[in-house]
Structure formats: C-alpha cells, structure tokens
Amino acid sequence: MPPRLLDWFPILRWSGSYGRQHAAGDATAAAVVTLLLIPQSLAYALLAGMPAVTGLYASMLPLVIYALMGSSPVLAAGPAALRSIMSLAAVGGVVATGSADFIAASLLLAVLVGAMLLVMGLLRMGFIAGFLSAPVLSGFVTASGLLIVMSQLPHLLGTPLRSENLWVFVQSLWWQRGEMHGLTGAVGLAALLGLWASRHFLQRLLRRLGLPQGAADLLVKAAPLLILVGFIAIAQTRDWANQGVAVVGTVPQGLPGLALGSLLGASASTLQALLLPALLIAMLTFVEQISIAQTFAARRRERVDSDAEMRAMGAANLAAGLTGAHAVGASFSRSAVLHDAGARTPAAGLLTAVLLGITALFFTPWLHHLPLAVLAATILMALGSLLDFGSFGRTWRYSRADFAAQALTFAVTLLVDLVSGLMVGVIASLALHIWRSSRPHIAVVGNVPGTEHYRNVLRHEVLTHPHILGLRVDESLFFANARYLEDRIGAELASRPDVRHVVLQCTAVNEIDASALESLRSIHQRLQETGVQLHLSEVKGPVMDRLKRSDFLEQLSGRVFLTHHQAVQSLLEETPPHA
Amino acid sequence: MPPRLLDWFPILRWSGSYGRQHAAGDATAAAVVTLLLIPQSLAYALLAGMPAVTGLYASMLPLVIYALMGSSPVLAAGPAALRSIMSLAAVGGVVATGSADFIAASLLLAVLVGAMLLVMGLLRMGFIAGFLSAPVLSGFVTASGLLIVMSQLPHLLGTPLRSENLWVFVQSLWWQRGEMHGLTGAVGLAALLGLWASRHFLQRLLRRLGLPQGAADLLVKAAPLLILVGFIAIAQTRDWANQGVAVVGTVPQGLPGLALGSLLGASASTLQALLLPALLIAMLTFVEQISIAQTFAARRRERVDSDAEMRAMGAANLAAGLTGAHAVGASFSRSAVLHDAGARTPAAGLLTAVLLGITALFFTPWLHHLPLAVLAATILMALGSLLDFGSFGRTWRYSRADFAAQALTFAVTLLVDLVSGLMVGVIASLALHIWRSSRPHIAVVGNVPGTEHYRNVLRHEVLTHPHILGLRVDESLFFANARYLEDRIGAELASRPDVRHVVLQCTAVNEIDASALESLRSIHQRLQETGVQLHLSEVKGPVMDRLKRSDFLEQLSGRVFLTHHQAVQSLLEETPPHA
C-alpha cells in the first residue's frame, strides 16, 4: 500500500489487527458517548440557529470521516458549543436568522471551513495555529461562553431577548423586562437543577443506595438523556406545546441526504462574506482539536500528527456541510468520556455514528415534544470548561501586555461580535509581538583586559578604542527590528565623531531576512558616505551562506572576521590609535 | 522653557542662534527647491484627482508646520507621488472621482492620516513601521509606479483610458485603441522629451557653452519650471484649449482658507471606509519619511528623532486637510535638492512655503493655459526612483519566501488596487514571520565526556542517559512557537519510553510570553500524568523574575537548576541508571 494512502487513512494501519480485545472497549465507549451526544447534538444545532435534527446529521458522516482519517482514538468529533455559536454569529451577520438562506449559508460555512482545513493540512500549515495566542484564545473563549449564556436565557426562561452582543442583550433586557413565560421558565430551571444535581450528587447517591460502581457510572452518564426523555414524556402527556412552551416540533425521520441543492443556492456575496469567518473558525477548530488530541495522546504516550488531524477535521467539516449540518469540531467533554470509557481505536467513533444513525432512523418522532428550555439547560451545563475568569488574573500578574490583548479580545467579542473579537485578538497578538521584537538588545562591547572576550561596556570594566565601535546584536534581524538597528547605529555614531570602523558582532543572529539585509545595505552606504567602514564578526554558518547569495559581501567596504577579537586586533594595526 | 515644548517644537532650539551664515544657505536652497516644487505640486494634485491649485495649498501650511516641528533641516515635506496616487485610490474607492464629495473625502483622508501619525507619535509607536517589510515595500512601490504611469498616459496622450488597475487598464486600452488626440499627444511627448533632455544633457551643454558651474546648475534645476512656462506661453498664443487640448483651467487666486465646511460635509460611512486606507498611508508615509531623514542625517552625522518626525508629519497632514489639500509626505528628490543646495535649518522649508504663497497670490491666473499633458510628463519624469525591478532579482536570490511576499504584493497592487496590495503585503510579511518562527531549533543534548558541557546529540559524540531527556531550546518562546515545543516534547517522549525526567536548557530563551507559559503548563501537566518530571536549567535572570510572578514554579514537579550539568548530576544520583 502506498505510504501516502496510509498517512491519509490511518484506519488502514489499525484495522488489520483489529480484534475482540479492541471491540469491547470501543463498543462500551461508543454507547456511553452516544448517551451524551444525543442531547448535546440537538442542543448545539439549536445554538447554531439550525433545526435540531441537523445536530444528529453533524454527528453521523463527520464522525465516520474522522474515524477513517483521524489519528487519535479518543478525539470526539462532532457538534461543539463554540463552533455552533461562531457559526450562528458568522452566518447571522450575513443572512437573516431562521430563513432558508440561513441554513444554506450555515452549510456553506461548514464546507468553507472544511476546505480551508483540508488545504492547510495538505500544505502542512499547522503554523497558522500560532496566530492565536493563549491569552487571546482564553479571552475569546470566556466571552463566547458568556454570549452562549445570553443566547440560551431566552429559551431557558421563555423571554424574548436578543443576544448578538452584550450591548444588544442589555438593551433588550431593559425593554422586555417582565415578559417571561412562567411554565417555560419553570421547566428550564427544573432541567438545569436536575442536570446539575445529577452531575454533582447522583454518583454518591447511587453508591449509597448500594449500586455497583459500574452501574452507577453508567446511570450518571445516561442522566442527561434520561432527564431529556422524562421531560419529553411529561410535555407530551401535559400537552405543554399548547400552553405556550416552545418545543422542538416535527423532526424529519431518516438519514441525511446530500444537501447539494441547498449549498448551490448560496449567493456569491454570501460566499465572500463568509471567507474571513471561515478562516477564523478553521484556525480555532484546529487549535482546539490539537490541544485536546495532545492532552490525551500524552496520557497514552502517543504522538499526534497535526497535518493528519487537520485533514481529518477538514474532511469531516466538508461531510457536515454536504449532509446538511453546520460546522463541527472536537469536543473536550466527549473526548474525556471516550478516554475514560476505554476507547481503544477510532472504531469507537464509527460505532457512535451508527448509533446516532439508528436514533435518526427510528427515534426522531419522539423528539417532537422536547421543550427547547431543556436543550438550553443542556447547553448551559456544558459551559463550565469555557468560562475561565481566573486566566485574566494570571495573565495580569505575568504580563501586562499579554493582559491588554486578552482584555481587548474579551471586550470586543462581548460588545461587538465573535468574528470581530477573534480578528482583533489575532491583530493584537501580532502587534504585540512586533512591538516586543522591534527593539532588540544591542550592546556596545569592549575587550575584557587580558582576554579575548568582549562584553557590554555598561556592565563590565572593558577597553574600547575611539576609532572602533563594536556592537553585539542579541537577536535575529528581521523586518520588525531591522530599522531599529539603523536608528541605533545612527545614534551611536552621532555621539562618537572619531569612529572609523563599526564591527557588528553577530554571535546571536540566527537569521537575517531580506528586510534586514536592506537595512544593512543602507547602514553600509550611509557609513561609507561619512568615511566609516562596516565589518562583521562571528557570523553563523547558515547566515553567512545566505549573505553569500546576495552581493552585500562584495560591496562591503570592510571585512568579515571569524572572531570579534581578530577584528579589533587587525583594525587597530591598520588604524593605530594615535593616527 | 519646558523640555517638552522643546521636544515638540525643535525650532525653539535653533531659532535663537539663527544668523546670516544660516540664512544664505537656507535662502538659496528654498529658491532652488521652489523651482522644482511648483510644477511638482500642480502635477501631484492632478495625480491625486484634485484641482491643480490644491497642490500649491499642500505646499504652504504643511511646510510651515513641518519646519516648526520637524527635526530634519533637509527633509522636504509636501506633495509626493506615492501619497497622491494612494489618496486617489483610497478616496476613489469610496466616492466618485471628480465629484465635490471626492474633494471633501480627500481632505478627510489627509486629516485622518495626520491624526493617526500624531497619535502614533505621541504614543511612541514608531514600531508600526516594522509591519512593512522591505521586499513588500519595494514590490508595492514598483507596482505603484507602474500604476502612476498608467494613470498619466491618458493625460499625456489625450486618450480616454481607465487605470484603477492593470486589468481595467488593459481592457480600456483594448476598447479605446486608436482614439487619441493628436495635438495633446504631441505636446505631452514633446514635454517628456524636453524634461528628459534637460535632465541628461542640459548641464553638459551649458558648460560647453561656457556658463559657470553655479549658473548651469541653477538653470538645470529651473528647467522643468521653464519648460512649463514655455508651454503655457505657446498654449495661450496658439489657443490650444480650443483645439481640444486639456488645460488646467481657471485656478483660484489667493491663499487657501480653512476647509472646515468641506470636511464636515463628509459622511460617517465615508469616514469609516477611509480608516484602513488612512492607517496604511500613515505607515507608508512614516516609513518613507524616516528612511529619507536617516539617509541625510547620516551624511551630517545627525540623529533622527522618529517620534518628533511622526508628530511633525502628522501635524503637517492635519494642516493639509484643513487648508484644502490632499495627504502630504516627504519627497526624496526635493530633499536631495535641499541638501545639495546647502540648506542649514528647517527655515529653508519656511521660506519655500512663503515663495509658494507668493505664487498662489500672484501667478495662478497664468496657469490657466497649462496643458495637463505637460504636468503628466512632469510626473512621469519623477518616477525613476519608484521603479526598482532589480529588487525582485536580488530578493529571489536571497530568500524565496521573501520573494513570494514581494511578488504577491506587486501582483495584488497591480491587478486589484493599491490599498489591497499594501494590506496583503503586510499580512504576507506577518504570516511569513510567524511561519519562520513557528519551528524554533530544539536540540536533544548530551554530555561531552570529561567536561561539564552539553551538546547536540546529532552533531557531537556525547553521553546520554535513558531516564533523562535534555532539550536545548534555541529561541525565545512566544505564541507562534509555543505549540511546537508541546509537539516536539510529545514526539520525543513517544519514542523514549524510559524517560523519567525532562530538562529544558533555557540558555537561549530571552523571553517566555503568556502563551508559552500556558504551553509549559500543559507540557508539565501532561508529563506529570505519565509520571515524568519537568525541570528547567540555565534560566536567564529576567525570564526567571517573570516566571516567579506566576504560580508555575510552585506547581513545577521538578526543579530549576543553575546549570544543565548540575541538573543531570542530581537527577542521576536520585534515579540511578540501573533503577
């Protein structure tokens, strides 16, 4: 088999040796994760502004594709909270929520995210994850969590509130106060309380009641689904739908078809407007996925192939868009469930998809009476991991500049919208980095008497000569700091009228990019015009190789010395101090 | 006098000791530069899509303001080719060229550029110039030069051609071929030939005719103005305007008034649309200005105060917008003239402004019959310094990646528009830098037998221990490369099942930003879960100080060692190899 094919489809590596010992773990894990995935998938579809059934669609073919192409046995692909609200924000910014165009645009967004991830995986562009710095990411995720809370409160309490951003939310809270549907609110809060109690007390209660560990564990994991089923039963018998409680309504039965018609209906202007949001969602999806994959891979001392992960998630998103679902990603909570339940291979994901398919085929009519308030409660209970307010304090103590980027991202996400927030965060990180890099440490150096060493004149007792200026550059030279070198040399020369030779000690220069080369050219030319020679010393091999490809060394008025000491010695001999 | 005031208005430093010896040089330089500035200012206004007279306005108050606030005696502020075509592109993208709104928006753009430069100067944000890498800048400038040629050909030849970008230009060339106004074309080509000949042969000719050096120099410098006057005279006597030759037309006489009414008429949407172009023009203006200022300051062994320069050019642009002119910048050609003619202080600029004021007061009626084709020829002759095709070859040989950024910028500028081109260039430079930084050099190190030195296992014969993994990180850790460290450690551990201790040798780590700290936390936690301890060695002082402000060191399972050798020795004693 060509190695290329094995790289693309890791399933070809493990499926050959698949046996009963794997199947047991995978089947258990798939069953447990399905219990969690059914309510989550419906809820996250709601969060993305999509029909509930599309949550099930997002949990079928995308999971199959990820199982074929992904490298991690426990990474749970499918609908995820952050992706859903970003999809809502991105698509809602282009077409009206709730329209047929909205669904088409949501699918298109998933296809775009998928295509971008696939291409970036092909081009090995994992480095783009680097654009999202940790403080920016945490500021963004926390603000997104708050926005999710705001978006779910109307469903939870039966209040008509708008929640595009904090500003709109507060305004609509002001105008709509008092208007709340009592029964919906009671149902929502009861569901929330039930989910909370089942997470925090059910385990202990069941153990006290004498249930064995395994059974108690399974019951706790099934609790969200059981609560959901319980509310469906009550809603149906009491006919809540006719008392004004919003319910899911008719859910089409069966497996998803190809949504090509819907996709092709999207306009070119919609496509264009979704490009930037799709890029941001692709970056975010990859960062989240890799961080989850690495966490679990480390526990198993496995390696994560980030290119394969990108391709797999890209293909999964393509599959999501083509089968009528919104963008998908990796879920930390479900990955943890897969890991704890003993998933051994990606076959667990395949099996989960089959179980979801069975649900879609046979159980969707039952979902008709499911109150939206219960789904909202499901979403709110899953938010814990998104809200990390402690991170602000940690960043503030560690670095004020990083904190500024974090706070800015948080504020823009909350007050404007998610796409702008993430965009501003990326720009802030980059600006911060360029600002930090723009003033590299450059020391004037002199000779430590009796040695061949050269040290900073400000920190050591060293010998200097009025005709020779030795400068040690303590960083690689690139476009952000190249101009500062020009500035600095200009300033040093303005205060040292006797200097005839400038020697740049390049010990710590790992790279000189084309901008820095231009700066060196300018420096050289300006020095030459005032009769000063420019020399280099201790240039590293790779840097020297590259310089030889330009004509800089041929034009250089001075020389390149192996050591700084040699430079100073030769120049002193040629230009004696008393000259 | 408060030092703050002296910093803001360098004129207060030099005006006290101003004397006759300065006045002579300044007056000569001002006279010579005025000869060049009159035709250039009219031509650059035309290039910006503005009435010709606004070129004179751009050469009055802005020059006065720069003389008061600027630090360079020879920097020539005022209308400049690149700024003018960028102004046209930016404003033309928002409102229709030639409308009253167009003028209002051009002034608004100048005010925005001015305000941004002023604020950036106040906040000492010179680092933003670093966003424009040298290859991107040169790709952009060369493409701009070609766009200027395209924009002037219609005026030069009397052909109606559109020139927003190369694509539009080629299309309109195809449809409009043949339609050319014969007389206009003849005038334009004659002017171009005249200007070219005066630059290349006039000096030699005059010397052969026996003129003294000084007189010949002055005549050569006056030649563009003389040619202009000559064409005005012929156009008037032959009444070219009635034969279809486009002329400047009625030019209002007198000094510019305050253009507040025009400025306040601009709509909020225009303001918003101009923000990004204004930022890019501000960056470009600053980069150009600093590079010109540094070139001449070096020849005089003077220092350039980049914050003062930013403030001065900001205020000059505010003055331009408020007195009815488009955005201004620094001109290399006129700065060179000031330098060569012996300008001693910024008073030369003041005097130039006065001479331009006299022109505006008394000579504008004469401009009525000036053919636009002659101004177009003036612009084309000034383009030489913008077109630098050789730079592509140099960049290609030096660095393929830098070349890619340069070519992309060139192509987008030429095929789409100037604003997109520069924007894409900035993004490409940043992406390139993040990509380069994303994989720092990390070496597995071992002990050089018999010493306390540790070296790369791939390059040296060194001793390692199966329980201890020593890694030397050869760069500062920040958001772009933090994740790679996680990757790399994960990969090393996956292939070394016996490792119990990971020691990071931080000799070359000058900084650990908040993202890298988060990565270290993740690495630490993942290692801890598999029973591996993380240690640090040779952490630099400032890095250590910062780490102490987080709780990372308290949570660290391992220790921080002064030297890598100490780390390995202690760990070997605690965990003997045979354990």
UniProtKB/TrEMBL annotation, chains A, B:
Alphabetic keyword roster: Membrane, Transmembrane, Transmembrane helix
Location(s), subcellular: Membrane
Domain STAS: 458-571
Gene3D superfamilies reported for this sequence: STAS domain (3.30.750.24)
InterPro entries tied to this protein: SLC26A/SulP_dom (IPR011547), SLC26A/SulP_fam (IPR001902), STAS_dom (IPR002645), STAS_dom_sf (IPR036513)
Keyword Nucleotide-binding: no
Membrane topology summary: Multi-pass membrane protein
Transmembrane segments: 42-68, 102-123, 130-153, 180-197, 218-237, 257-287, 308-329, 341-363, 370-387, 407-432
PANTHER family: SULFATE TRANSPORTER (PTHR11814)
Protein name per UniProt: SulP family inorganic anion transporter
UniProt source species: Hydrogenophaga bisanensis
